[in-house]
Design a protein that fits this description.
By secondary structure, the protein is α+β, with helices and mostly antiparallel strands. It is 32% helix and 23% strand. The chain has helices at residues 2-7, 12-29, 75-78, 81-98, 125-132; strands at residues 33-35, 45-47, 53-60, 106-114, 146-152, 162-170. The radius of gyration is 21 Å and the shape is elongated.
Length: 171
């Protein structure tokens, strides 16, 4: 094909632009593919075709004070892991909405969990999952992103147990 187009006398810059346009048009027709053979609450992989716009959200923390009488720098002020996960995901949901996106557009998530002092410094994976599954893999929102969950020594302040960052794809 390239030889035929070149033989028509098209300059190489025009040829490159034509090929790039054709590739972008093909990529725009392809959908994001979520690999989830076990129907788990997280995808084993997500494939994003070329030409899609990726949106990277910075890590989000819960902003909901659940116990105003608790010391501000105490996890009790913001609640346990389940409560803080829910709060962080609500912040993400609102940020995505402000960009014309939704949780259905999330393709990758990283969850950072600090050890909960009420659980002898261990992370509360179960608590995180209770809130996570309210946003992903539901009948109303069946999408499940690829996800990593890691325990960290600390987050931005001692009151924080959960921070979540996501990547979304603009449809």
């Amino acid at each position: 094909m390239i030889k035929r187009v070149l033989s028509l006398g098209l300059p190489s810059a025009a040829l490159g632009a034509a090929l790039l346009f054709a590739s972008a048009a093909q990529a725009a027709d392809k959908a994001v593919v979520i690999y989830n053979p076990k129907k788990a609450p997280i995808a084993s992989a997500v494939e994003v075709p070329a030409g899609k716009t990726l949106v990277f959200l910075s890590g989000k923390l819960s902003q909901v004070v659940v116990d105003p009488k608790a010391p501000k720098e105490s996890p009790a002020s913001l609640g346990d892991t389940e409560t803080q996960t829910y709060g962080a995901l609500k912040v993400i949901e609102e940020d995505l909405k402000s960009m014309g996106l939704g949780m259905k557009d999330v393709v990758k998530m990283t969850v950072f969990l600090a050890g909960d002092p009420a659980k002898e410094g261990k992370l509360d994976f179960g608590g995180m999952m209770k809130s996570y599954t309210k946003f992903f893999g539901t009948p109303e929102q069946p999408n499940v992103p690829a996800r990593s969950t890691v325990q960290v020594a600390a987050l931005a302040g001692p009151q924080y147990l959960v921070e979540v960052e996501v990547m979304a794809v603009r449809p």
